[in-house]
Amino acid sequence: ELIETATVDEYEDAKALFVALRGMGIHTAIDDFGAGYSVLNSILDIPVDTMKLDRAFIANCTTSEKKVYFLQSLIRMIHGLGYRVVCEGVGTREQADFLREAGCEEAQGFYFARPLPLEECEALVYPEG
């Protein structure tokens, strides 16, 4: 077993260790999942309206069945807790379509627009001046 906080603090080392152990046929576990530094431990006490999912979730969201399931479940869980969901880092139409089907109400990323100077943003939002 490896405690979650150690996994978070030393992610790359822990990942390499788990890969090596699995390769040797050794079963592994993460202990105290949701404790320590995990946002899962404190999500219920945070007085916010919206949870923005980091682009790391989106970048590889369809590269495996586990990742698809995890992201869909995460979006459902956040909705179930009463929060709105914004997904960051959307770079393709495929990602946007996938997220829409998964129930994500809002998204941001280069697929929609690159960062703009204030004047250009105002011109888009208020085209008539």
Give the SSE layout.
Layout: E1 2-3, H1 4-9, H2 11-23, E2 30-31, E3 50-53, H3 55-59, H4 65-80, E4 84-87, H5 93-102, E5 106-107, H6 118-125
Parallel strand pairs: 1-2, 3-4, 4-5
Structure characterization notes:
The protein is mainly alpha-helical. Helix content is 45%, strand content 11%. It is built from 6 helices and 5 strands, in the order βααββααβαβα. It has a 3-stranded parallel β-sheet. α5 links the parallel β4 and β5. It is elongated and about 65 Å long.
Radius of gyration: 19 Å
Number of helices, counting only DSSP H or I runs of 4 residues or more: 6
Count the E strands: 5
Question: What is the straight-line distance between the termini?
Answer: 61 Å
Name the strands of the widest sheet in spatial order.
3-4-5
List the secondary-structure elements in sequence, H or E.
EHHEEHHEHEH
Instruction: Classify the oligomer.
Output: single chain
Based on Cα principal axes, name the global outline.
elongated
The fraction of residues assigned to DSSP E strands is: 5-15%
Strand-pairing-aware structural class: mainly alpha
- Chain-averaged pLDDT: 81
